[in-house]
Specification:
About 30% of the residues lie in helices and about 45% in strands. It is an alpha+beta fold. The strands form two sheets. Strands 3, 4, 5, 6 and 7 form a five-stranded mixed beta sheet that branches. Strands 1-2 form a two-stranded antiparallel ribbon. β1 and β2 form a beta hairpin. α1 packs across α2 (about 80-100). The longest helix has 20 residues, at about 80-100. The radius of gyration is 15 Å and the shape is elongated.
């Protein structure tokens, strides 16, 4: 599925993979987020994704001209998950709306794991 917009300059089409990668990049820049995660459905284990696979931790759905985004993340041990999630939602929503020109209807944050960060 692709996001479509009609502007005064013409039609713009954005692939959901592009939106997912941008959302994943915005997410890992947020304080307390160690990285994006993918979940092995068969085993139920979360795997920390490298920078090249960020879009695999993001699901984007387009309904009309509205986006729904689900982020699968791994957080740092000792942070407030609710504070990280609020910051993550605000940041990703702002950046995606600014980047695409489309409105974000809903963002779901799924915390798939916790990682101890050693200094």
């Amino acid at each position: 599925m692709k996001g479509r917009m009609n502007t005064e300059m013409g039609k713009i089409v954005i692939d959901t993979d592009v939106i997912a990668k941008y959302a994943g990049t915005a997410a890992i820049e947020c304080f307390g987020v160690v990285g994006m995660a993918t979940v092995n459905v068969r085993d139920g284990f979360a795997k920390l994704l490298g920078r090249g696979n960020l879009k695999r931790g993001v699901e984007v759905t387009i309904e009309g001209n509205m986006l729904d985004i689900e982020l699968h993340i791994i957080v740092a041990y000792g942070v407030s998950i609710s504070a990280v999630a609020r910051n993550l939602i605000d940041t990703v929503k702002y950046k995606i709306e600014h980047f695409t020109g489309m409105k974000v209807a809903d963002i779901i944050v799924s915390v798939e794991g916790v990682k101890v960060i050693e200094d």
